[in-house]
Design a protein that fits this description.
The protein has 294 residues and is an alpha/beta fold. The protein has a domain of 195 residues: Pyruvate Kinase, Chain: A, domain 1 (3-Layer(aba) Sandwich), CATH 3.40.1380. The chain is built from 7 helices and 5 strands; from the N terminus they run αβαβαβαββααα. Helix 3 links the parallel strand 2 and strand 3. Helix 1 packs antiparallel against helix 7. It is elongated and about 115 Å long. The protein starts with a helix and ends with a helix.
């Protein structure tokens, strides 16, 4: 049975840990609000870009752009794996890494990692030369632009056959779900999913005549790279918000569990202290009786 001193030390250690988890919980609660605001501010631009691309592709019979053509079938698939830079968020990082491993099972892939945890996971797979970027950079749009340029160049030159992003989706504050989306080659269904709203309502609505200047290929050559760049940027914002939500839940559970353990150890310490006092009293009474007998 642990001594009173051991139990007291364990309680003190748990109280220190509880203070840390409470502080991390408050930080996560503050950061998730900012991440949610950034995600909401980016949504109108994403809607407009997706609708514009859908209109252009619907109005043009054929488009001569590399993003609209199948990639090199003999090349590996390009997987943009997004995770957080830090842990202490439950199974947040391991779930998205597992989703990437399921996608890569039975096929050849080339990883492009965003987030330190994703980079470390890919290195544990024995791949040490993959391109990587941090998720918590000061300018996420700059990182998204670098990632988009890197994967786009590899796709155009035939290094990879397609561009797939594996990231976390924020379903609710209590639920985050990994999602795997193919971005390139671009399909009309992907554009409908990219823009919010009812796809059937959008397709059934009347569309006016669209004029292109100087040509449809020129307009799409400008918009398609922006589509790829902003889709990656939106996925980074989504991953950021989902991470802080997962960390908030994890730190709340850790704080509650620490409180329960402190209560249990306090009861055990009081019982141990009472047992020690009782033992000392019995020894004193036994010694007094022994002196009386003599």
């Amino acid at each position: 049975m642990p001594s009173v001193r051991d139990l007291r030390d364990r309680i003190r250690s748990l109280k220190n840990t509880q203070q840390i988890t409470k502080a991390m919980k408050q930080v996560a609660a503050a950061k998730i609000r900012r991440a949610e605001e950034a995600r909401k501010r980016a949504r109108p631009y994403a809607d407009a870009l997706g609708e514009m691309l859908a209109d252009l592709i619907a109005a043009v019979s054929s488009v001569d752009h590399p993003f609209m053509k199948p990639g090199n079938e003999s090349a590996p698939a390009g997987v943009v794996l997004m995770s957080a830079d830090k842990g202490l968020a439950g199974a947040f990082n391991s779930n998205v890494i597992h989703a990437a491993e399921l996608f890569a099972r039975g096929r050849s892939v080339r990883y492009y990692t965003v987030g330190i945890k994703a980079r470390n996971a890919v290195r544990r797979m024995g791949i040490s030369d993959q391109p990587n970027w941090p998720l918590g950079a000061a300018s996420k749009i700059a990182v998204a632009r670098e990632v988009a340029n890197c994967v786009a160049d590899d796709f155009v030159h035939g290094t990879i056959s397609e561009i797939v992003v594996v990231s976390q989706k924020l379903v609710s504050m209590l639920s985050q779900r990994p999602q795997t989306c193919k971005l390139v080659p671009v399909l009309a269904e992907d554009l409908k999913a990219f823009a919010t709203g009812d796809p059937q309502e959008q397709s059934g609505a009347a569309r006016g005549a669209v004029e292109f200047s100087p040509s449809p290929e020129f307009v799409l050559s400008r918009l398609l790279p922006k589509y790829l760049e902003f889709t990656l940027y939106s996925a980074m914002l989504e991953t950021d918000a989902a991470f802080f939500a997962a960390q908030l839940v994890a730190m709340t559970n850790a704080t509650d569990n620490a409180s329960k353990l402190i209560d249990e150890l306090t009861i055990a310490m009081n019982n141990a202290r009472q047992a020690a006092i009782t033992k000392e009293l019995l020894e004193i009474v036994g010694g007094a009786e022994a002196l009386g007998v003599e």
